[in-house]
Every structure is written in structure tokens, then in C-alpha cells.
Amino acid sequence: MKQVRLLPSATVRAACAVAVAAFAAGCAQIPRDPIIQQPMTAQPPTPMSMQAPGSIYNPGYAGRPLFEDQRPRNVGDILTIMIAENINATKSSGANTNRQGNTDFNVPTAGFLGGLFAKANLSAAGNNKFAATGGASAANTFNGTITVTVTNVLPNGNLVVSGEKQMLINQGNEFVRFSGVVNPNTISGANSVYSTQVADAKIEYSAKGYINEAETMGWLQRFFLNIAPW
């Protein structure tokens, strides 16, 4: 049996090729950054007021006065978001142009050239047409509920909220994240508000698992997709 011995330089090149392939394969599974970058929850501050000796009323209990309603207004309070997003968009455009031109004239010739160019003339014609159409449509529907936490109270009283819900289903981890700014006046008596009434709302639904990996385009396919001229 004939043995083939690799030179040191060939071994180095082979090792580099394997390392590059492994690095590219790892880049193919780099997770996308979530669109919600703020903290998903916040802890309420510890009340500083102390209970008076012999008193049955503690004004600092849960940081809420006795005769105050239970609507969220402090950091750490919770609020239920009723997600009801239904967005439809349609766009169409078109263009059509047509341009034509014709030219026909005789060429005067000298007398001694009359026999050769007696009927000489020049003519030119041109035609230019352009037609294009385009259209796009999108429809998105997202319904559900998620309970979020007040992470900050703005100077005008509006509440900055954010929250996350995780579900492990069939070896796939699904995430629902929400953040936005809520006006306390829009909160109902059931301690809930619709997502359509939340300012700067960011809603994210993503998943991790083998199904999500199967739906992700591989690095080599993305490479050829970027350099292909068609």
C-alpha cells in the first residue's frame, strides 16, 4: 500500500480550511438580537416608613396607601396587556411610457452624380417603450395576553412596562416579549390595557429549537444568495 505523506505546509492549510469551515458553520447559528433591549422586570423599592408601635395600620405595606385603588402606578407593579394587533397594508404602482419618431428626407446631389444618386434619400425611425408594474401586500395578526411589569415611571406619570413569557413546547422554547409606554388613564378596572393603546409598543415572538434552526438559511446558501447575479 502506497502511503502519502502530507507536507507541513499542506497540513497547516488543511487545518486552516477546517477551522474556517467550523467558524462559518458556527456563524450560521448566531442568534438574532431581540428588538427589546430593556430589562424584562423590575423589583419595587423597599418602603422606608416604619409601623408605629401598637398600630394595626402600616402605611408602607406594599408601598400603597389604604384608600388607593389597585391600578399599577409604581415600579414593580404588574399590568396585563391584551395583544390585539391586526395590520393590513397594500401597495401597487405602475408606469407606462411610449415614444415614437420618424424622419424622411431627400439628399440633393450634384449634376454629374445624378445618374448614380438620382433617387437617394435618408430615413430614420425610432420607437421606445417602457412598461412596469409592481405590487406588495402584507397582513399580520397577533392576538394574546401577557402580563408585564412597570420598570419606570416617567415624570408625566406614564408607565414604562416590559415583560416576557417563555413556553417550552416539544423541545422548542418559545418567547413572547413586550415593552412600551402606558398611560394610566387607559388602564381598565380589570388592570388591563389593549396593545393598541400602548405607545412605542414593541412586540416580539420568537423561538429556539430544532424547528427554528431548520427554518434558518445556512451560511453557504446565504453566501451564494448574496453573490449570485440572478
From TrEMBL:
Top-rank lineage group of the source organism: Bacteria
Protein name: Flagellar L-ring protein
Organism: Burkholderia contaminans
Gene Ontology molecular-function annotations: cytoskeletal motor activity
Quaternary structure and partners: The basal body constitutes a major portion of the flagellar organelle and consists of four rings (L,P,S, and M) mounted on a central rod.
Leader sequence residues: 1-24
Main subcellular location of this protein, as a coarse class: membrane
Matching PROSITE patterns: PROKAR_LIPOPROTEIN (PS51257)
